[in-house]
Amino acid sequence: MEELQDAIEDAQYLSAVSSVEDGPRPVLPWQIPTDEELSSWKQSIRSKTLTAPLPFTLEWTLARALGLFLFSAYVKSIGEYVDMNFLEEVARWKMARGRLRADITGRIVEGYLTGVPLSSMAEEGGEDAANNATADNVNGDASTNNMGKTTPPKSEINEYDLAMLIPSKFTSEDISKMKSESYDASTNKSAVGICGPVLEKINKKVDQLRNTPGFGSFKLPANRDSISSTFKSSLGSSTTSDIGDIGDIAASVDKSETTSEGGGGGATAASNRRNLSIMTNTLPEDMFDEAVVIIVEIMKEKHWKGFLESEQYTKLLNFLWFRDRTVVEEDFFLMRVLGRGGFGLVTACKKGTSGKLYAMKIMNKKRIKIKKSEQLTLNEQICLADVKSPFVVELAYSFHSQDDVFLILDLMTGGDLSFHLCQKGLFSKKECLYYGARIMLGLQALHDKGYVYRDLKPENCLLSEDGRVKLTDLGLAVKVTPNLHGAAGTRGYWAPEMLKRDKNGKRMSYNHMVDWFSFGCMLAEFISGINPFRSEKALEFGLAKKPSMTQASDASEKDKKKDDRKRQKEKAIDCATLEMHPEFDSKFFSEEAADICKLLIDKEPTTRLGANGCSEIMSHEYFAEVNWEEIISDRKRPPFIPPRDVNAASQSEIGTFSEDKQFHQTVLDEKDESYYKNWDYTSDKAYAAEVIEFLIYERETGKPLLPMNMDSECCCTII
């Protein structure tokens, strides 16, 4: 019967994963607040927010992805869209870097802030631009209004995380003056009415971009979907703010010789493209701020009152109220067990209201107490909530019950890299570069927040259904401190400084450089299929330095010495880590591959590659073929797409936990509960993505998305 039940759960899981592209399939209605509940919630929001933007203003609304989406939906529903599309493009510009920012700069300047008609854009961009110019226009074409100016085509938001933080540095007097001097609805100088000193400033700033070598042959994409699809490719798009300054250096380390889209080829085209990206990134971050403030003020006068009386505003309040309610276990429906950790199971699940699939990590409080791991458990939750990166699994929710604590994470259906490495033996060069690049940026995202990962290994690198890899299991991640010491993680991936002791026999302290050593071990494993410090040569080396015990003659003695031999094997691996300098077989390693691995597994952390940040590793010749802008912006297509299958062990192999005598005798008290007083968490980004995905599906189908089963009388669809 258990095998039958497992088969049923496997089938349900595969069906749910396979149907993701068909749209969300909710099974619970969204609960809506009573008037009293909504009033109380609004008052609590006002009391908590004393800084700008003040709650429930237009600026506050636009600063939230869900608010921007619903305000945009309202404005476009009444036939107004040009100003709104302008704000959306600037929001994309703020998020982008490199070539993508260059694309959006061209779209904003040519489409919204000059009187240049779209036909001129097509001439500059080429025939494809002319063909694509109307792809997003609901009416079919760009139009010329009765004032004689060309307006760009209408588009809709397709991203899940687009928001606009309105600059607060301008006073009301500043805004009034800018409006009087630089806004004229009847002007033909720009599609949004910006003119005068503000437009002149923008034109001066963009002149340097126009004079960049290669700009004349650079295609300005007229189809906004060419940009928005890069954000829609995963839950929450990548932004350079997620990974520190990596976006700013990507163009300088991008050594690819990719042909430019606008013409030309080889090294010249690639050089022009890099120059354009670098030049675009030198444009000031406040380049469009004055224009944005003016347009927001115009939209406030024209549309804010109507929005407050609209169904979109009602939806916004209801959805935000629902976000702030306490999340409970019953909000999720369990599917298939995917794995087992130290304190509980990891199970695929579905969020009832949105139909979004997640992974639920369940950790039993008693098991945590038995192993005295409360702080490690808290560390994982804090780190996951703190680090926002497309290269690290995202924490959507955390909550706890009387017996368990829960982490709701990205569902990575493609399995871990250890599973696929075992299947393949070793990875291809393209796979090594792609996985290595993303893992490297995931580590840097942790380091930028002050954390050291300490548990990098193929088992902790998960693939999504489309082949994107992310780091997971942050249970050993901690903040770097001057006295951080002690081995943590898995033998063979430990850095030497984790094992070293001072003259008094005390463990030496270490920092984030241990992660780059682990990265070197894992990169070598990707290339050859073998971890250099867990190989037969490493064991032979270590055992030669630490001779094994004399072999026992009878079977019973051998059994008694089993644990001793295991410990000796572990000591041999440690010895190899401390003293052995691996050789890299030319059968598997090119000169560049061997060199980068040697530099990464340098015994001395101060000279190890990565000591000055991951830009050192990005610049190494081994990664010369990588287009870093594509990796960082999450646009790079993965080299391997895992099969749509259960990429995990069978549920019988995963097993369950035996509740032994110690478990039953363990009692939780108030002190134990105090560890989890701040455990509850909801990610604004993940929640907004859930709802926006839901709303996009409604927009595309033209009808409300109702749950498959509506039994509850206290809930209804948000309208």
Distance between the termini: 44 Å
Low-confidence stretches are 116-140, 217-244, 255-264, 549-553, 710-719
Estimate the global geometry from the Cα principal axes. Answer: globular
Order of adjacent strands in the largest pleated sheet: 3-4-5-7-6-12
The secondary structure category is alpha+beta
How helical, in percent, are the residues?
A: 40-55%
Number of domains: 3
Number of helices: 31
* Biggest sheet features: 6 strands, antiparallel
The strand count comes to 12
Task: Indicate the proportion of strand residues.
Answer: 5-15%
Measured on Cα atoms, how large is the radius of gyration? 28 Å
The quaternary structure here is: single chain
What's the average pLDDT? 82
Could you characterize what this model shows?
There is one protein chain. With 719 residues, this protein is α+β, with helices and mostly antiparallel strands. The protein has three domains: 2-20 and 326-411 and 659-681, 2-Layer Sandwich (Phosphorylase Kinase, domain 1); 55-306, no CATH class; 417-532 and 582-632, Transferase(Phosphotransferase), domain 1, CATH 1.10.510. 47% of the residues lie in helices and 7% in strands. It is built from 31 helices and twelve strands. The strands form four sheets. It has a six-stranded antiparallel β-sheet with strand order 3-4-5-7-6-12. Strands 1-2 form a two-stranded antiparallel sheet. A two-stranded antiparallel sheet has the order 8-11. Helix 22 (536-545) packs across helix 24. The model is unreliable at 116-140, 217-244, 255-264, 549-553 and 710-719 (pLDDT under 50).
